[in-house]
Amino acid sequence: EISVCDVYCQFILQHFEYLSPEAQSVHLHHLSQTYVNISVYTKEFSSTDHSNLMESLKKSQIIKDKNGDMRCASDFYDPDNPVFKVTNLQYCSYSLCIVTVMKNIIN
Prior knowledge:
By secondary structure, the chain is mainly alpha-helical. 47% of the residues lie in helices and 7% in strands.
């Protein structure tokens, strides 16, 4: 049986650049709201799934740079920049989704 984590790690994130900007935003929003900040694990989404998803997000090219090239979130992350300390985002535009995802996947 294939899990949600498997779908994201093996398919969606590996081919993220082929998705439309709207679809990218939807997936990042879904990940940040449903899986990234998860505190209760289930049979359908375990702590191992969470760890695997975080590792996949770290390595995935999910952000377009100013030249339009896809880059990894870790290429942009700066732990000393206060924007990465934003918490409890209620509305998640594409940019805010990326900040939320980066904040949670990069250590």
